[in-house]
Specification:
heterodimer; A: about 150 residues; mainly beta; Alpha-Beta Plaits; SH3 type barrels; 5-stranded antiparallel β-sheet; 4-stranded antiparallel β-sheet; 11 strands; B: about 300 residues; alpha/beta; Rossmann fold; 2 domains; 5-stranded parallel β-sheet; 4-stranded parallel β-sheet; 9 helices; 9 strands; about 35% helix; about 15% strand; globular
């Protein structure tokens, strides 16, 4: 039974599996990681049942290992996601994400009156927990919460 | 003690420590007592006003002129290169070459901080949209110090729009250094945001919330009035209900403390009845004059001309 569940998204020989992504944020995670520009083999699965998340999504990227900084950025929308490093079909390492303290680019500030929405300024946020992840704009000081996050 | 305001931009009131705030206030008093006509000799200050703000601009320009400085700049964006599509970054980079300090007023929030990151000279924020206006706060503090003889242990009443009013938020942050007791008087729709109350809780400072003026105002040392604006209400009926509740009239001042003074950032509409103007407790016009001395103090300390 366990085996069938694993295979509902096909296995990869080498690469990274990102599990426990809230299904509704799958496409945000894809944008944050910039997967649309990758030429690796990528498999997505979504709307799997999950005890923790209700519905979860999973991403498998063949032959790709992300840097910690890159992958931690997805903690903005998928803070409980888990990473599995696969080598020769085996999980050799498994780790949880760390929410970064600050983040540059990626997300748009929710405040239409913020300078970053009018000039070519790279957005910059301090990450606060209230208690979910939310972003405080370095420039206008307004808070963008998880539901409002729009990936640039 | 040495102060490190030299060459540092002033974007938010939170950029200054308690000691630095006190230093500016002390310097403002010195400028009020003794004019320093040649202090800014040879200095050029840029005043970039991307939106008209007559009071703030004239106050800055008066402060600079009285110290003998020269001014370059524009008074609204229609007379600047913005109309040709120039970015804020490019304007700031260019103006940095022509001036020793830039004063900027801009309708977008965060614009002053961004300008300070792009500029090669210090930047003073003269208001960035609904965000920050630190020189207003410092002149408010100078006015409080002047009228009360101290900033410590005062009872301050903030009245009107406490939700959106940037001046009351910055004043609260600055006064929270001085063991202040706060009383908030506002309609339900415009109450002080949670984050500021949490800040006071963290510091263990007392605050009380009221829906209207009562006899409680007799305990005030400072009553800080702000405008309740019609456009802040989603339902016009709600505005009609409260619009006359937050109007200060002369007869309401009868039992107030002798040292009590009324402040207002101006412009006033109807929230202070004109019958208050003759009362010696009405301080809002002198408050505007204090702005000139405070801005002299800020500019002089940033340029390192006064320590």
């Amino acid at each position: 039974m366990e085996k069938r569940k694993q295979l509902s998204v096909s296995a990869i020989k080498n690469g990274t599996v990102i599990d426990h992504i809230p299904a509704k944020h799958l496409f945000k995670v894809i944008s944050i990681l910039g997967l649309e520009t990758f030429d690796h083999q990528i498999t997505f699965g979504t709307n799997f049942e999950s005890h923790k998340l209700g519905l979860k999504a999973i991403i498998k990227v063949a032959d790709k290992y992300f840097s910690e900084d890159d992958v931690n950025r997805i903690a903005l929308v998928a803070p409980v996601a888990k990473l599995n490093i696969i080598k020769d079909y085996e999980v050799v390492e498994k780790y949880a994400l760390k929410v970064p303290k600050e983040i540059s680019g990626i997300v748009k500030c929710v405040n239409p009156q913020c300078i970053t929405n009018h000039e070519k300024v790279t957005t910059k946020f301090v990450i606060i927990m209230k208690p979910e992840v939310a972003l405080k704009c370095h420039y206008c000081e307004k808070i963008t919460d998880q539901e409002q996050m729009e990936i640039q | 003690m040495t102060y490190s305001m030299k060459s540092r931009s002033l974007v938010s009131i939170n950029d200054y420590s308690k000691e630095e705030i006190l230093h500016i206030i002390q310097l403002a008093a010195e400028f009020e007592a003794t004019p320093h006509p040649g202090l800014l000799d040879g200095k050029v200050i840029a005043t970039l006003f991307y939106e008209p703000s007559t009071r703030t601009r004239l106050s800055f320009e008066s402060a600079i002129n009285k110290l003998g400085g020269r001014i370059v700049g524009f008074t609204d964006s229609s007379s600047s290169s913005v109309t040709k599509g120039e970015s804020l970054k490019d304007t700031i980079k260019t103006v940095s070459n022509y001036s020793d300090l830039i004063v900027i007023r801009h309708p977008l929030e965060g614009s002053a901080l961004y300008a300070s990151e792009m500029a090669t000279v210090p930047v003073v924020n003269a208001g960035d949209g609904a965000n920050q206006h630190p020189t207003q706060t410092l002149l408010d503090l100078y006015s409080i110090q002047k009228t009360q003889g101290t900033l410590e242990d005062l009872n301050i009443f903030l009245v009107g729009d406490l939700k959106y009013g940037r001046t009351v938020h910055s004043l609260l942050m600055a006064m929270s250094h001085f063991n202040t007791t706060f009383n908030f008087i506002s309609p339900k729709e415009l109450q002080m945001p949670e984050e500021y109350k949490m800040h006071l809780d963290t510091l263990g400072l007392k605050y009380y919330e009221h829906l209207d003026f009562t006899d409680i105002v007799s305990r005030a040392d400072i009553v800080y009035m702000t405008r309740v604006q019609r456009e802040r209400f989603s339902d016009p009926m709600d505005y009609e209900k409260v619009k006359n509740v937050y109007v200060l009239r002369n007869h309401m001042l009868q039992n107030t403390k002798p040292n009590m003074r009324i402040l207002h950032p101006l412009p006033r509409v109807n929230e202070i009845h004109t019958d208050v103007d003759q009362n010696e407790k009405a301080y809002y016009f002198t408050q505007a004059l204090n702005g000139v001395y405070t801005r002299q103090a800020i500019i002089a300390s940033i340029l390192g001309l006064k320590s």
